Amino acid sequence: MHLRNIDERRCFDRVWGRLGRRFDKLSVTGDGRMKMHLNLGTRDLERSVAFYGTLLGAAPAKRLPDYALFVTEEPGLELALDLDAQARAGEAEHFGIVVDSTDAVDAQIARLEREGFAVDVERDETCCYAKQTKVWASDPDGRRWETYVVHEETETRDGDACCA
């Protein structure tokens, strides 16, 4: 790459330096595992940071006035939040975190309620061909998140309110 002047070189070095540090410290797991990366726009970054900090049980790895980045191992996730006055949640979508026990769902319920987030709890309900226990909560932009454990697979798809 040929850079035309010293200002372009400084800009390149500054951007590349940031990207290099990010990938060296945050993205590479080192053992071949993959992480999911989600980038979500939000109209209220402060409230979204509070919600996702509670949902993920983690503080942002990076926090700027218009951006926050959460990096977690459980679940393996990089979640970027961008301040965007036009952000809107999709109507037919939702996101989920699978856990390995009802105790983990109960811990999520307690964490969300303690921080004042509204929750909807379903215990031993059939949804998407599985008997599950789950908690639903919505981020400040209306994105629905479920934290759930599957107790057993079923032959029945769901009840009336599955994933609603």
UniProtKB/TrEMBL annotation:
InterPro entries assigned to the protein according to its UniProt record, in alphabetical order: ArsI/CadI-like (IPR049789), Cadmium-induced_rsp (IPR052393), Glyas_Bleomycin-R_OHBP_Dase (IPR029068), Glyas_Fos-R_dOase_dom (IPR004360), VOC_core (IPR037523)
Domain of life: Bacteria
Domain annotation VOC: ranges: 34-150
Listed GO biological process terms: response to cadmium ion
Name the record gives this protein: Glyoxalase/bleomycin resistance/dioxygenase family protein
UniProt organism field: Vulcanimicrobium alpinum
